[in-house]
Amino acid sequence: MATNLLKGKRGIIFGALNEESIAWKTALMAHEEGAEFVLSNAPIALRMGKIKELGEACNAEVIAADATSVEDLENLFNKASEILGGKIDFVLHSIGMSPNVRKGKTYGDLNYDWFHKTLDISAMSFHKVLQTAEKLDVMNEWGSIVALSYIAAQRSFSHYADMADAKALLESVARGYGARFAAKKVRVNTISQSPTVTTAGQGITGFDDFFNFADQLSPLGNAPSEECAKYILSLFSDYTRYVTMQNLMHDGGFSTCGITEEMMETLAKARQK
Ligand code: NAI
Q1: Neighbours of 237 (CB within 10 A)
Q2: Is residue 210 scored above 90 in pLDDT?
Q3: 21 in contact with ligand 1, CB cutoff 6 A
Q4: d(CA 271, CA 273)
Q5: Domains of the chain
Q6: What percent of the chain has pLDDT over 70?
Q7: Would you say the CB of residue 169 lies under 6 angstroms from ligand 1?
């Protein structure tokens, strides 16, 4: 049902590791919608993941870049505009990793070197992407830059540990840089996505319970990654030109729901046991 929504648009998509990745689904859909783009991921992900397969499916070149390295990002932006034949219209930052979460460290027992890494990879890298793009002047007017967040930025979710702080910083960067980039008519937003079954998602202790809880507490249910991809494309399209500096909830209603019938039934069943 493609409608050429992104025909003529050029972009960079960070963070496709495997078929489950939100960035993977976004790339496939962006290709169907007529966009041309470069795929990027950390060098280690290029070795271990399946991004080359995706590159073939989307007719997209793959360029390695550690998103914490400004040098890598400069190289990526320069090469991408060369390959794509002009300035960039959209960027997806779909990057997140916390060594503390991976190793099951609780919020009261964080390793601070790892905490630095969490912030650098999951949040400061977004600032680096934005600053590099602005300094190199590679963004087209009415361009759109999107990163992915989670509601732990606003509410406490114990197992999310230092990723919650990273997401709060990420959302703040979108506001701060969105105000700045508006001078060049570039918009900057974050999408706060439901729990999603991906490599990053499943790295969180108790992810399945977490996932089911959110699903029951979302009137529409958890938003699937394919739907997240569609939402991302809408933000890359010309239909959302004046949406900027926002954290946009894509969560089936979770963030504004008190309780659902489904959750009431679950609680009643548990009481009867
Ligand atoms: P994923 O594991 O498929 O994607 C994470 C990506 O980050 C991977 O491709 C990984 O290689 C990349 N990455 C890690 N370190 C990097 C570095 N130094 N440089 C460049 N890339 C690096 O998982 P998913 O779920 O698709 O994650 C995408 C985004 O969505 C992340 O920001 C995540 O926090 C966010 N998100 C995920 C949710 C979930 O439940 N899965 C919920 C809400 C937001």
Answers
A1: 18
A2: no
A3: yes
A4: 6
A5: 10-207+222-257 (3.40.50.720)
A6: 100
A7: no
